[in-house]
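## tool: complex_structure
## caller: assistant
## args:
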Amino acid sequence: MTRGLIAFLLLVLAAGPAQALTEAQYANAVRETAHAVIVPGYADLAKATAALHGDLAALCTAPDEAGLDQARKAFAVTLQRWARVQFLGLGPIAEHQRAARIEYWPDKRNVVGRQLADVLARQDSAALEAQRFAATSVGVQGLPALERLLFEEDALSAIAADAPGAAFRCALLAAIGGNLETIADEVLAGWTGGESPFLQRLDQPDPESEDLATSHDAAARLLNDLLTATIVLRDMKLLAPLGETPAKAKPQAAEFWRSGQSLAVLRANLEGLRELFGTDGGLGGLLRATPDGAPVAAAFAATLEQAFLAADRITLPLGEAAADTAQRKEVTALAEQLLRLRDLLAGPIAADLNLPIGFNALDGD
Amino acid sequence: MAIDRRTFLAGAGALALAGALRPALAAAARPRYLSAAATLTGRQAVVALSETGAALYDFDLADRGHGLALRPGAHQAVCFGRRPGTFAEVFDLATGDPVATISPTDESRHFSGHGVFSPDGRYLLLTENDMARRRGLIGVHDAAAGYARLREFPTGGIGPHDLRLLPDGATLVVADGGLDHRHDAMSAAEAADIRSDLAYLDWRSGTLLEQVRLDPALARMSIRHLAVTDDGQVAAALQDSAEVPDGEVPLGFLHRRGEGPRWLAAPKGGWGRFRGYCGSAAVDLAGNVLAMSSPRGNCVGLWSTGTTATVGIADVHDGCGLAAADAAGSLMISSGAGNLFVVGGETPATALGADTPAEFRFDNHLLRV
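## result:
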């Protein structure tokens, strides 16, 4: 991995001089993506979490297979919506630990499991009150905790009316649902409502702002988020469960393995990546408008297509595929496409768009 | 005034943390370096690193961290929230377990991201901005009283950022960043009068001992980060607040009490390579080599603290954090891509072993334990 990173650095440093794009061009690209992709994406997430909250509340009024099935479906839909915007670090999602409260992952030390066990053991109903719950341990607040409650073997029997602790468990399910809905609503409201909607900050950057003084800054943040997505997808979502050999595979390192949603989420991540980059508009459209950009944009689109095809060839759940000799090849093939996407973003795309790549480079102190 | 994500967090208070994470390796290896970091999935953390860059433990922060300080004589360290900071998190050096959280005393105050301990480890001195009265402050907290606020005194300037103790243990040197247009609304007349300065203060009495102010022609330059040699020489790393940095003005100087600043020689390729921005500064263990990083310019420059001559410049992508490495003349660099490098002399930066955790993006500063 380190060798890969060094190669990546060399590649970044080798990237050539940039074409001059105007602030107005960056502004258009960012505006398009924000209005056409980001805000609708968060609106979809808000809708999905509202439905999920409703289904979780309903499940407990009369727990049965159909209700559990309905809640699990709503959970999967929420994952889909979340995955589309999972890598955005811009704006309200970065405040109040909202991203980690929606999904605390990776969870190498079983924080979610320990905190959930703790909450279930204490049975403190007052702790489930919305405001208190939103300030409680991040591990119990979001999707990973909900996944455990909905997909563990005795998910249904544990909330049967006569089961010990059923009432508290039901209240916890509803609390997580309500919390997710609130967080998603807050993110959406942060973008579109209030005194200083984030959308407006992107539309009209404030030159006095520390981290978003120009549309160039905003475009750089977006590009870096997309680059991060390719690294997380490859290193954390694929290579971590894959391990070095089939015997060293770690199926439980796959994201959302309990619900069997790892690949579906990864696929939605790729779709989000495609939309957030943009083809006609957004950064992709901007890229195609630069003198050398068209072939690079085409390469990005083609590589993304290859990534989708590679994902199609993984027929087992990701964790199982990692431990399967034949399927490992397909996982590796997908990882290779993600590496290509990363190198395109960090290399020619960043250079053509004249956008800085980095973490410390983006906002100084 | 623009509201950024950190301003939103001010006053949020009871933020949910993931709790102490038990390290598997902590007992086996002693932390050699500490850094604030963001994970690839956006969590803010402190990471303790071994000498090969392996993560020994990490714990979550309520918001983005910045600088760190080590408490002499006790196994404790502190991570300061990034400006405008709303917390300073004290933790157990061996395990990362929380010890105390320090908050600003008032909503009009925020921490600037840096602090140091008194030589006996009793008092924590941190830089603070008083927005209401537009002045820089040093806050004094008593580690023996649960890190309670003991007293405070003005730095004599505004926008204080980094601070260090001189070898005498009594003299504090503070980088007053000066005009900070992002946080302080000021009239043109006020702004013209306020410049960045280097302030020497006796922290025991709060007395301002000496103030080095930059030439009015350099009003847009901001002194941000400091390093101090064992013989009391101060290195100051600057940032150019101009939208288009001019590329000619030096971004660093050396200074001794009672003397004038000695500006650093331009690095090979010129100051333009630094893009008007130094992220941090550090000197090697022998005190002969000063390093300053520019994550925007993707380089780290080295200078002789004796002659101000350039010693070398290394290409490091998004390299920012700096700390002394084990060998004299060598420095450790941390990068936003999650790598550690060792650099010394004219040799290029060497990446450290495969242990370096790729999931962390090292943030701004690296502290040698």
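## assistant note: Chain A touches chain B through 54 residues (CB under 8 Å). Chain A has two domains: 2-32+204-353, 39-202. Handing back to user.
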